[in-house]
TrEMBL record:
GO terms for molecular function: dioxygenase activity. InterPro entries: HGLS (IPR009770). This is 2-oxoadipate dioxygenase/decarboxylase. Its cofactor is Fe(2+).
Amino acid sequence: KNLCAHCANLCALRVKNFMTTLQTVLSGLMRRYTERVPDVQRIIDAMIDADMIDSAADIENDHIAFRTMGVPNLGIASFEKIFLALGYEKRDPYQFVEKKLNAWWYAPPALDGPHGGNLPRIFVSELRVDDLSTTAQAIIHKYTDTVTADPVDALDLTDGAAIDAFLHQPLWPTPTLADYQTLLAESEYAAWVIYNRYYLNHFTISVHNLPEGYNRIDEFVGFLQDRGIRLNSSGGVVKVSPDGGLRQASTVAQLVEAEFTNGDTQRIAGSYVEFAERRVLPEFANVPSDQLTRAHRREGFEAGNADKIFESTFTTQTGR
Ligand code: OOG
Ligand code: NI
Protein backbone atom coordinates (compact mmCIF):
# COMPACT_ATOMS: atom_id res chain seq x y z
CA LYS A 1 0.00 0.00 0.00
CA ASN A 2 2.89 2.36 0.69
CA LEU A 3 4.57 1.43 -2.56
CA CYS A 4 4.40 3.18 -5.89
CA ALA A 5 1.50 2.09 -8.10
CA HIS A 6 3.76 2.36 -11.15
CA CYS A 7 7.06 0.78 -10.17
CA ALA A 8 5.90 -1.23 -7.09
CA ASN A 9 8.74 0.23 -5.01
CA LEU A 10 9.17 2.95 -2.45
CA CYS A 11 10.59 5.03 -5.30
CA ALA A 12 11.66 8.67 -5.33
CA LEU A 13 8.30 9.75 -6.70
CA ARG A 14 6.37 7.93 -3.99
CA VAL A 15 8.67 9.36 -1.32
CA LYS A 16 8.21 12.86 -2.70
CA ASN A 17 4.43 12.44 -2.61
CA PHE A 18 4.51 11.19 1.00
CA MET A 19 6.64 14.12 2.02
CA THR A 20 4.41 16.70 0.36
CA THR A 21 1.25 15.24 1.86
CA LEU A 22 2.81 14.75 5.28
CA GLN A 23 4.24 18.27 5.37
CA THR A 24 0.79 19.68 4.58
CA VAL A 25 -0.79 17.61 7.34
CA LEU A 26 1.92 18.37 9.91
CA SER A 27 2.02 22.09 9.20
CA GLY A 28 -1.79 22.31 9.41
CA LEU A 29 -1.71 20.58 12.79
CA MET A 30 1.07 22.79 14.12
CA ARG A 31 -0.54 26.00 12.88
CA ARG A 32 -3.83 25.42 14.70
CA TYR A 33 -2.14 23.99 17.76
CA THR A 34 0.15 27.04 18.05
CA GLU A 35 -2.91 29.31 17.88
CA ARG A 36 -4.68 27.33 20.60
CA VAL A 37 -1.79 26.84 23.01
CA PRO A 38 -0.07 30.15 23.87
CA ASP A 39 2.71 28.27 25.71
CA VAL A 40 4.04 27.02 22.34
CA GLN A 41 5.04 30.48 21.13
CA ARG A 42 6.09 31.53 24.62
CA ILE A 43 8.52 28.61 24.82
CA ILE A 44 9.84 29.12 21.27
CA ASP A 45 10.41 32.83 21.97
CA ALA A 46 12.18 32.02 25.23
CA MET A 47 14.42 29.52 23.41
CA ILE A 48 15.31 32.11 20.75
CA ASP A 49 15.91 34.69 23.47
CA ALA A 50 18.32 32.29 25.21
CA ASP A 51 20.15 31.66 21.89
CA MET A 52 19.26 27.98 21.91
CA ILE A 53 17.74 28.21 18.44
CA ASP A 54 17.47 30.79 15.65
CA SER A 55 13.87 29.94 14.79
CA ALA A 56 11.16 27.31 15.39
CA ALA A 57 12.48 25.41 12.37
CA ASP A 58 15.55 24.44 14.45
CA ILE A 59 13.40 22.44 16.87
CA GLU A 60 13.19 18.71 16.30
CA ASN A 61 9.66 17.47 16.96
CA ASP A 62 10.19 14.18 18.80
CA HIS A 63 6.57 13.10 18.51
CA ILE A 64 2.99 14.28 18.29
CA ALA A 65 0.01 12.71 20.04
CA PHE A 66 -3.68 12.17 19.38
CA ARG A 67 -6.56 10.81 21.45
CA THR A 68 -9.59 8.88 20.23
CA MET A 69 -12.73 7.09 21.42
CA GLY A 70 -12.51 3.30 21.18
CA VAL A 71 -15.87 2.71 19.48
CA PRO A 72 -16.82 1.18 16.10
CA ASN A 73 -15.83 3.34 13.09
CA LEU A 74 -13.49 5.46 15.25
CA GLY A 75 -10.63 4.68 17.60
CA ILE A 76 -7.08 3.69 16.74
CA ALA A 77 -8.25 1.26 14.02
CA SER A 78 -9.73 4.17 12.08
CA PHE A 79 -7.27 6.93 12.96
CA GLU A 80 -4.10 4.98 12.22
CA LYS A 81 -5.10 4.46 8.57
CA ILE A 82 -4.23 8.09 7.89
CA PHE A 83 -0.62 7.80 8.99
CA LEU A 84 -0.09 4.22 7.77
CA ALA A 85 -1.02 5.49 4.30
CA LEU A 86 1.64 8.19 4.68
CA GLY A 87 4.39 5.68 5.34
CA TYR A 88 4.29 5.41 9.13
CA GLU A 89 4.89 1.98 10.69
CA LYS A 90 3.01 0.61 13.68
CA ARG A 91 5.37 -0.30 16.53
CA ASP A 92 4.60 -1.13 20.19
CA PRO A 93 1.33 -1.21 22.15
CA TYR A 94 0.84 0.18 25.66
CA GLN A 95 -1.96 -0.37 28.17
CA PHE A 96 -3.21 1.84 30.97
CA VAL A 97 -5.55 -0.24 33.08
CA GLU A 98 -6.51 2.43 35.63
CA LYS A 99 -7.16 5.08 33.01
CA LYS A 100 -8.90 2.55 30.71
CA LEU A 101 -6.70 3.43 27.74
CA ASN A 102 -4.85 1.60 24.99
CA ALA A 103 -2.10 3.19 22.91
CA TRP A 104 0.34 2.49 20.09
CA TRP A 105 3.28 4.36 18.69
CA TYR A 106 4.16 4.74 15.02
CA ALA A 107 7.58 5.26 13.51
CA PRO A 108 7.87 7.83 10.72
CA PRO A 109 8.85 6.74 7.21
CA ALA A 110 12.65 6.50 7.03
CA LEU A 111 12.88 8.84 4.10
CA ASP A 112 16.22 10.15 2.94
CA GLY A 113 16.73 13.82 2.41
CA PRO A 114 16.80 16.96 4.51
CA HIS A 115 13.63 16.32 6.55
CA GLY A 116 12.83 12.66 6.09
CA GLY A 117 15.11 11.42 8.83
CA ASN A 118 13.58 13.54 11.55
CA LEU A 119 9.83 13.42 11.09
CA PRO A 120 7.90 13.15 14.36
CA ARG A 121 6.91 9.80 15.77
CA ILE A 122 3.19 9.49 16.49
CA PHE A 123 1.56 8.34 19.74
CA VAL A 124 -2.14 7.46 19.46
CA SER A 125 -4.29 6.42 22.40
CA GLU A 126 -7.94 5.40 22.67
CA LEU A 127 -10.46 5.15 25.47
CA ARG A 128 -11.72 1.64 26.22
CA VAL A 129 -15.29 2.84 26.16
CA ASP A 130 -16.73 -0.62 26.94
CA ASP A 131 -14.95 -0.54 30.32
CA LEU A 132 -16.75 2.62 31.50
CA SER A 133 -20.01 2.78 33.48
CA THR A 134 -23.20 2.29 31.47
CA THR A 135 -24.02 5.98 32.05
CA ALA A 136 -20.72 7.16 30.56
CA GLN A 137 -21.01 4.69 27.68
CA ALA A 138 -24.51 5.95 26.87
CA ILE A 139 -23.28 9.56 26.82
CA ILE A 140 -20.37 8.76 24.53
CA HIS A 141 -22.51 6.70 22.15
CA LYS A 142 -25.12 9.46 21.97
CA TYR A 143 -22.47 11.43 20.07
CA THR A 144 -20.28 8.83 18.40
CA ASP A 145 -23.17 6.70 17.08
CA THR A 146 -23.81 9.51 14.60
CA VAL A 147 -20.67 8.22 12.86
CA THR A 148 -22.11 5.23 11.00
CA ALA A 149 -19.17 4.38 8.74
CA ASP A 150 -15.41 4.74 9.21
CA PRO A 151 -14.89 8.37 8.09
CA VAL A 152 -11.25 7.73 7.14
CA ASP A 153 -12.40 5.29 4.46
CA ALA A 154 -14.08 8.19 2.68
CA LEU A 155 -10.90 10.31 2.73
CA ASP A 156 -8.43 10.66 -0.13
CA LEU A 157 -5.26 9.84 1.81
CA THR A 158 -3.01 11.28 -0.87
CA ASP A 159 -4.62 14.71 -0.40
CA GLY A 160 -2.89 16.60 2.43
CA ALA A 161 -5.43 19.44 2.46
CA ALA A 162 -8.31 16.95 2.74
CA ILE A 163 -6.61 15.19 5.68
CA ASP A 164 -5.92 18.53 7.35
CA ALA A 165 -9.58 19.52 7.00
CA PHE A 166 -10.69 16.12 8.34
CA LEU A 167 -8.53 16.39 11.46
CA HIS A 168 -10.05 19.75 12.33
CA GLN A 169 -13.71 19.11 11.57
CA PRO A 170 -16.24 18.13 14.25
CA LEU A 171 -16.73 14.39 13.81
CA TRP A 172 -19.81 14.30 16.03
CA PRO A 173 -22.25 16.88 17.46
CA THR A 174 -21.04 19.35 20.07
CA PRO A 175 -21.72 17.94 23.56
CA THR A 176 -23.86 19.54 26.22
CA LEU A 177 -22.05 20.98 29.23
CA ALA A 178 -23.93 18.53 31.48
CA ASP A 179 -22.68 15.54 29.46
CA TYR A 180 -19.16 16.94 29.49
CA GLN A 181 -19.28 17.29 33.27
CA THR A 182 -20.70 13.80 33.82
CA LEU A 183 -17.90 12.33 31.71
CA LEU A 184 -15.29 14.48 33.47
CA ALA A 185 -16.31 13.03 36.85
CA GLU A 186 -15.64 9.49 35.61
CA SER A 187 -12.89 9.86 32.98
CA GLU A 188 -10.96 13.07 32.38
CA TYR A 189 -9.75 11.55 29.12
CA ALA A 190 -13.33 10.87 27.93
CA ALA A 191 -14.30 14.47 28.63
CA TRP A 192 -11.24 15.76 26.79
CA VAL A 193 -11.98 13.75 23.65
CA ILE A 194 -15.74 14.40 23.54
CA TYR A 195 -14.99 18.11 23.22
CA ASN A 196 -11.50 18.33 21.63
CA ARG A 197 -11.73 15.36 19.27
CA TYR A 198 -8.68 15.11 16.94
CA TYR A 199 -7.08 18.40 17.92
CA LEU A 200 -3.37 17.84 18.33
CA ASN A 201 -2.85 16.88 21.97
CA HIS A 202 0.83 17.89 22.08
CA PHE A 203 4.01 18.28 20.15
CA THR A 204 7.31 17.41 21.76
CA ILE A 205 10.59 19.32 21.78
CA SER A 206 13.64 17.03 21.44
CA VAL A 207 15.85 18.30 24.24
CA HIS A 208 18.95 16.20 23.44
CA ASN A 209 19.55 18.13 20.18
CA LEU A 210 19.70 21.53 21.87
CA PRO A 211 23.01 23.25 22.64
CA GLU A 212 25.15 22.18 25.56
CA GLY A 213 23.74 23.54 28.81
CA TYR A 214 20.15 22.87 27.73
CA ASN A 215 20.37 19.39 26.22
CA ARG A 216 19.56 17.51 29.41
CA ILE A 217 15.97 17.41 30.59
CA ASP A 218 16.79 18.74 34.08
CA GLU A 219 18.58 21.74 32.57
CA PHE A 220 15.75 22.41 30.15
CA VAL A 221 13.11 22.06 32.86
CA GLY A 222 15.06 24.53 35.02
CA PHE A 223 15.08 26.96 32.11
CA LEU A 224 11.30 26.61 31.67
CA GLN A 225 10.63 27.07 35.37
CA ASP A 226 12.82 30.21 35.45
CA ARG A 227 10.64 31.57 32.67
CA GLY A 228 7.45 30.83 34.60
CA ILE A 229 6.16 27.93 32.48
CA ARG A 230 3.87 25.67 34.54
CA LEU A 231 4.82 21.98 34.39
CA ASN A 232 2.92 18.76 35.09
CA SER A 233 4.04 17.55 38.53
CA SER A 234 2.34 14.13 38.49
CA GLY A 235 4.90 11.49 39.44
CA GLY A 236 7.55 14.24 39.63
CA VAL A 237 8.24 16.88 36.98
CA VAL A 238 10.72 14.66 35.08
CA LYS A 239 9.50 11.16 34.24
CA VAL A 240 12.33 8.66 33.73
CA SER A 241 12.04 5.23 32.06
CA PRO A 242 13.44 2.30 34.11
CA ASP A 243 16.39 2.00 31.67
CA GLY A 244 17.14 5.71 32.20
CA GLY A 245 17.11 6.37 28.45
CA LEU A 246 13.83 8.26 28.03
CA ARG A 247 13.27 11.35 30.17
CA GLN A 248 10.12 13.40 29.68
CA ALA A 249 8.36 16.45 31.08
CA SER A 250 5.32 18.43 29.96
CA THR A 251 3.45 21.64 30.58
CA VAL A 252 0.08 21.75 32.28
CA ALA A 253 -2.55 21.99 29.51
CA GLN A 254 -3.77 25.48 28.81
CA LEU A 255 -7.45 26.20 29.15
CA VAL A 256 -9.62 26.97 26.15
CA GLU A 257 -12.98 28.71 26.23
CA ALA A 258 -15.22 25.80 25.21
CA GLU A 259 -18.62 26.41 23.65
CA PHE A 260 -21.16 23.74 24.43
CA THR A 261 -24.70 23.42 23.08
CA ASN A 262 -27.33 25.98 24.16
CA GLY A 263 -24.66 28.68 24.36
CA ASP A 264 -23.08 27.29 27.54
CA THR A 265 -19.39 28.09 27.85
CA GLN A 266 -16.71 26.87 30.21
CA ARG A 267 -12.93 27.00 30.37
CA ILE A 268 -11.69 23.45 29.92
CA ALA A 269 -8.35 21.73 29.28
CA GLY A 270 -6.98 22.08 25.77
CA SER A 271 -3.54 20.91 24.70
CA TYR A 272 -0.04 21.00 26.16
CA VAL A 273 3.67 20.87 25.22
CA GLU A 274 6.04 18.00 25.97
CA PHE A 275 9.84 17.79 26.27
CA ALA A 276 11.84 14.61 25.71
CA GLU A 277 15.47 13.66 26.19
CA ARG A 278 16.48 10.42 24.51
CA ARG A 279 19.86 9.28 25.78
CA VAL A 280 22.46 7.54 23.63
CA LEU A 281 22.24 3.75 24.02
CA PRO A 282 25.13 2.15 25.93
CA GLU A 283 26.40 0.32 22.82
CA PHE A 284 26.87 3.67 21.03
CA ALA A 285 28.56 5.50 23.89
CA ASN A 286 31.69 5.97 21.77
CA VAL A 287 29.99 7.47 18.71
CA PRO A 288 31.25 11.08 18.31
CA SER A 289 28.48 13.55 19.15
CA ASP A 290 28.44 15.10 15.65
CA GLN A 291 27.68 11.66 14.19
CA LEU A 292 24.79 10.76 16.48
CA THR A 293 21.43 10.10 14.83
CA ARG A 294 18.08 8.84 16.08
CA ALA A 295 19.27 5.29 15.50
CA HIS A 296 21.79 5.67 18.35
CA ARG A 297 19.27 6.84 20.93
CA ARG A 298 16.56 5.25 23.11
CA GLU A 299 13.51 4.65 20.90
CA GLY A 300 9.82 4.24 21.61
CA PHE A 301 7.84 5.23 24.67
CA GLU A 302 7.43 4.13 28.28
CA ALA A 303 4.08 3.23 29.85
CA GLY A 304 5.08 4.49 33.31
CA ASN A 305 6.04 7.90 31.89
CA ALA A 306 3.01 8.11 29.61
CA ASP A 307 0.62 7.28 32.46
CA LYS A 308 1.67 10.50 34.21
CA ILE A 309 1.93 12.62 31.05
CA PHE A 310 -1.75 11.91 30.25
CA GLU A 311 -2.54 13.86 33.43
CA SER A 312 -1.27 17.09 31.84
CA THR A 313 -4.90 17.73 30.80
CA PHE A 314 -6.49 16.49 34.05
CA THR A 315 -8.09 18.92 36.53
CA THR A 316 -5.69 17.55 39.18
CA GLN A 317 -3.00 19.43 37.20
CA THR A 318 -4.89 22.29 35.51
CA GLY A 319 -6.56 23.20 38.81
CA ARG A 320 -3.36 23.29 40.86
C1 OOG B 1 -0.46 11.12 25.72
C2 OOG B 1 0.35 10.90 26.99
C3 OOG B 1 1.59 10.02 26.77
C4 OOG B 1 4.06 10.09 25.96
O1 OOG B 1 4.91 10.69 25.32
O2 OOG B 1 4.29 9.06 26.60
C5 OOG B 1 2.68 10.67 25.99
C6 OOG B 1 -1.68 11.96 25.91
O3 OOG B 1 -1.73 12.79 26.83
O4 OOG B 1 -2.62 11.78 25.13
O5 OOG B 1 2.52 11.68 25.40
NI1 NI C 1 4.09 12.45 24.43
